[in-house]
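Internal ticket #5521
Category: modeling
Description: The requester needs a full-assembly model to guide mutagenesis choices. All entity lines are attached below as received. Residue total reported by intake: 1057.
Assigned to: D.W.
Attached entities:
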Amino acid sequence: MTEPTSIERRRLLGAATASGALAALGAPFVSRAQAKPIKIGMPTILSGRVAQLGTSSRNAVMMEVEKFNAAGGLGGRQIEMVVRDSKGQPQEAARVSRELINSDGCEILFDCEASSGAFAVHEVVRDLGVLCLHNISETSALSADPKIRIPNAFRTARQGIHDSIAGANYAAAIAKAKKLDRWMTCSPDYAYGRDTTAEFLEYLKTFHPGVEVAGEAWPKLFQPDYTEVVTRLLQGKPQAVYSCLWGGDLVSFIDQGNIYALFGQTQFFTVNMADYTTLTAVKNLPAGMHTGNRYVKVFPANPGNAAWGDAYFAKYKEYPTNWSWECQLGMQFLTTAMKKTNSTDGKKIAEALRGMKVDSPFGADGTITMRGEDQTIIGYATGWGTTLAQDPYVKDVQAGDWKQILQHEAEWKKKKGYV
Amino acid sequence: MSARGDAMSTPGASPRGRVRRAASSGRDLLVAAAGLAVLVVLPFVFSSPLLLDFMIRLAAFAIYATSLNILIGYGGMVSFGHGMFFGAGAYSFALLMQKTGVSIPVAIVGSVAYCAVLALVVGVICVRLKEIYFSFLTLAFQMLVHSVIISWVTLTGGDQGLTGGIPRPPFLGIDLGEPRPMYWFAATVAVLCLLAMRHLMQSPFGYTLRMVRDNAERAQFLGIQVARIRLAAFVIAGCFGGIGGMLMALFVSGAFPEFAYWTTSGEAVFMILMGGAARFLGPATGAVMLLLLSDLITRFTEFHGIVLGVTVLVFALVFRRGVTDFIAQALGRSRAA
Amino acid sequence: MDPSALASCFASLSCVVTQTTSGLIIGALLFLVAAGLTLIFGVLGVVNFTHGSFYMLGAYFAYSAYVASGSFALAIAAGALGVAAFGLVFERVFMRRVYGSDVLMQLLVCYAFILILDDVVKMVWGPEFKSMGVPDAFRMPPVSVAGGVVPAFYLFLIGATAVIALALWVVLVKTRLGKVVRAAAINPQMTSALGVNTGAIYGAVFAVGSLLAGLAGALAAPVRSVAPGMGFSILIESFIVTVIGGMGSVSGALVGALLIGLVRSFGSIGFPLFVEGIMFLAMAVILVVKPSGLLGREAAR
């Protein structure tokens, strides 16, 4: 658990500002010598509560872009990322996206906004017709809802519905084995929390009909105090608890639950524990918690994943996040499509992306596919395992079965009226 | 910061007052016409889409900030919760367009009506309180509106906002789906709204409002129903604030809970601070300044909080007045708006 | 709404004990922050909107002190005294300039500082959340009280807050200093004319108020994640508490904080979705019916 000291951070900041300033000046000398750069706009969140989303995304993107440029780029043309901070406000995301396309000459939009920002960017892209990759938003409606979907926007992030099906399957097996019939939930009260929890419970009941939900707690997002939630869970005496709390909220909840000895008495199923920032921040990580994976080096257990995680750590002195691998994947899809069509034309790239399969260390079987019909990725590794108090932090990770996921997803789409 | 105007002047009573008022409203009309002409011609001179986008947002915020100044500068009522009308206007307009398929003018009227009712309900409870308690209660109501927007997911989309875009069926031959007509529409709405607010503030109602601001007790003794005047001001401010929100909803083609958050209220206050509360065009000037500042800061640093905070401190503690106040002083006009 | 769950909780002693103590816990930290806020308003007449940021600074100071030294006592001292010093400087340099101005100016200065402090904290400590962890002295299973459970750390928290509340009461009511402070609150000109250095009183009171907020942050740091912007939610809650209890009344802050704590704690069982709404409703009702709050005297300003 190494964190950059303030001196290192200031130096990083200084270097970043200097190179940013140079990039802003456009370094005219350089561009005259080379072919015209491929400008890609990246609206993201670099400040505020969720600043890590933007910084870890940008890190992963730059790593991938540098690799691409060093290998010659696209026929000598190098990618130039133009990263802008939307401060986490969707109207800023819309403004910044329009600015990137209209004034900064970006041909493609690499959207790294969270869900409400992504919807705002989506409307801009619908209006201006530019190619856009959504790399962060996990809201299924962005790609599944035909009223929202547009031919020039693709999603290279995981989807809530896939994770819920896989998680419920894992949980149902354990519930059957250990007779966990009385459940409670504790999830943040906003769209992600509500939708994910509802989907998980629905599929849990499908896979293991004996389940009874004794109560649902809905703390507010970024709420500091979980005491009343913890005591309510204690009173309810559930055999298992599901939570999709994440980040600082999950850490607070575990810290506060620990002093009430909450975790000795129930089995915990938390979607977002397996993320290095969270894992290293929790002081007394209870062993044996069930967790889904956000990003860990050991799952999928292949050398490519570990190598990428180590390379990221070597460069940035911190471990990648879930957002990081999604952005790496997005950039990989983009550069692969550009090379395949030998062009930066949005329509041609979109055509190439539909149905494209790439080799990826984050794939369940070593590959990830961009499904053509709704332009979102499938086949990425989603798994659940149990926690350990120290590195590697998770063990016995079971991968989700994609055949099952896709089958249930198809039924879900029918039920929602998306087909 | 709020200008303590000359409470002795109550024009409108005397014939000379009527003439003076007519002359000033004629002048306002001229200024508005000239301003509109410049704005209409602008895209032919500068064809930059960045400029048009900026002006559309400026239109929304100029109306919104000026509407808040009706309360703060002219009414002496410091509302911390004005964002609730920005959000209410945006959501009501967007919902009407998305769900009911009415034409844009009908949706505008519906949205304004909704904001008027909201302002009436909230205002009736708030305007009787004095000073800090009024401020707190408006803040509390805004937080309530915000939490309703977040919780009523089936109607508002919750924290993700209204997704799917706002349909823009052409009306009267105007197609707001095209960038230039959208800009002209926003510019015209802004000029008309500012003109309307100016007219209201220069009318007997406006001067009565100022009298209530300066000395409510004295106004009461003169037979003025203070609560009713304050409520009327609150409703007017709420309606125009909603129109600002409506323009923003058109710009982003949606509505988000952030529109009704306290940070939006804070932005309007910053605009009034930087532009000046004493002159009518102060808040609009402040809107230009704040938009320019915040658009530029994020290009250069992630620490926009420090830059904005220091700027506010400089204006609040060093300058102690807004830009238009400086200009007015320089021009030698000491008469308060 | 789940009235049956609430009823069955009232029927069970262990539930009542657990929920009451959790209400006390929530109320304790809230009281510390609100007491400082209400003290500053009562004596100086300013609404210190930066109070939430003081709480945040207290948490960060405590976190750093704990990481550096491993001593929780030192962490508490760092949080409390560090913020007290900062508050004193803040009052001398900035707040003094806006004492006479209207509330808008005070709001603007404070809001500017909220923005600045959030970014400064991000620059120094980084944007990700930090976790201090419960000190080893308190790493034990929760204490069993009449069938209910209370974590040892929270017992310490409640105890510490009770001691501070008592100390505040004793100083304000029983000592001469307290009388002088209350006099300065009611009539500063007269107090000054009687030879009291009201400027020093103002500085001292602001420092004490900030100390309370910093102390609250330091006490909360072991169990809450420390992140930029963490001051906002406790600021809003402490406003609700001070309005309900009465702006300027420390005992009102105690009553209000306990009330809010109990409402949240029992509310999470009986009416979890309406807890926030009820709090705002209560604030609105008080503002309309008795703006000076439950225990506040009619505002002399």
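Resolution: model delivered.
Comment from assignee: Chain C has one domain: 3-289.
Ticket closed.
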